[in-house]
Amino acid sequence: MKLTRILSITLLAATASMAMAQDAVDVATISETDLRGTARFMSMAGAFGALGGDLSTLYQNPGGIGVYRYSDAGATLGINFHSNRSLTDYKDEVNKCEATCNNAAYVGVFKLDSETCPNINWGFSYNRALTFKRRYVGTWDALSTSMSNYIADETTAGGWTDNDLGNSNYKGNAPWISVMAYNAYLLNVAGKDKVTFNGLMDSKTTGWGEYEVREDGGVNEFNFCFGGNVLNKVYWGISVGIDDLRYTKYSYYGEDLKEAVYQDANGQSRRGGASWGLQNGYVMRGTGWNFKAGLIFKPINELRLGVAFHTPTYYKLSADYDADISYEMADAAKGVEYSPAGYGRFRMNTPWKFMVSAAGVIGQRAIISLDYQCDAYGTMRMDDEAGYAYDDVTRHVKDLYKSAHTVRVGAEVRVTNAFKVRGGYSHTTSPVNEAALDGAMGIYTSGTDLGYTLPKSTQYITCGLGYSFGSVYLDAAYVHRKRDAQYHVFSPSSIGVGPMADIRNTNNQIVLSLGFRF
Known about the structure:
- This protein is mainly β.
- It has one domain (2-265, 283-318, 350-517): Porin, CATH 2.40.160.60.
- Helices cover 12% and strands 56% of the residues.
- The chain has helices at residues 2-14, 24-30, 39-43, 147-157, 162-165, 176-183, 391-400, 434-437, and strands at residues 72-87, 91-111, 119-131, 134-140, 188-190, 196-198, 206-230, 234-263, 269-300, 303-310, 314-329, 333-338, 342-349, 352-362, 366-376, 381-384, 403-414, 419-428, 452-469, 472-488, 500-517.
- The protein has a 14-stranded antiparallel barrel with strand order 1-2-3-7-8-9-10-14-15-17-18-19-20-21.
- A hairpin with a 3-residue loop joins strand 1 (72-87) and strand 2.
């Protein structure tokens, strides 16, 4: 805990001017993966690494483009039903419905007069690679500690004084969360040295807390792919992806306390009711690029093996953020404290990815496919605008995250020459170390938003149908996703573990694809 605490204080000090408000959790958020693509791809849970011949493979295993013998064009639409459940002292649920365009792509085939290289193919695709649309709320009836106590503890450990925090023309290095909390009467100065702070809660204080988090935006990826076929045995492909990212987050945490301890404008200690709330707004946007390469090997007609790797997406990003604390201390003080609006430019790298796959054909009537994928979350990093590493963030990434492992299995049965039935399952492990999920290590955040979400496991259960009308094909899929996570109001520390909520994001999606081969 000692090392993690030092990191927390260091980063809070570094971000006092609001010049940089990104952290390891932000890198992980934009590095999440989602099951997106054509209805055929999604109905088999994305287990296409060794199959190819689908427009989604341009985004997954580029070697799949070499399987094509005819040109292909298609588009996919989806209807999403989101449900976000938060379990605190109550079970709160928020539901939403939206329509999306999951995929649009084209593959062109150039046939060559060669037995060694029968064809060279190229293609481009659009994929809605990731969506951040989530909202969850919750309430705790009986708080065991207060966020003000956590801020007071961190402020004391940082060595700040009331003179550092109380200057209305503040131009110092103290963290803005401490400055705002001090001027909103959330911190009490203790002792003559004026370098020790206490929060609002002591053994006589009771109260409740509430939170809300709203996330929106997504990642749109445009892939440009090139590949070919060697002796109808080896299919290869490479692609370059251009990602467009927009992520917005609004967070709120508030407390209503009885018998709280606070100091009035004259520095006199008082006890009474205290209500306050912290709001944070955050918008991150930018573009990035990545490179993918893959192979599919067919030793016999009944077996295919695949391998692919993805480089990180190298993002150049900017962010805007602001925060305020509204407060009311019995009849002594009432108002709002604002942080300055912040703006920053920086770079982020998502994880390296590696996948291996195998697929078998049974009697020309059925396909069974299996994929394994490793996302090396420990390789994520953040740099400043000039490309120099934020070493604290990089170290915290390695402490907090590990590799996530995904297993996908899919099957397709040809009922008639035109009609197919499909199904699939996918499971992804948590990229977060067990110590963090168990509350046994501190998690530092930057800026004034002390809350964070730690993803746990994600699973998909999928099924679908396909029908072809000569050169035209129509596919449908139903996709059920369940994602578990933890939301923490602030990091575990010497004052204990703060309020926490178990989160379950459930998404039910109906997907339709229409395509044309020629």
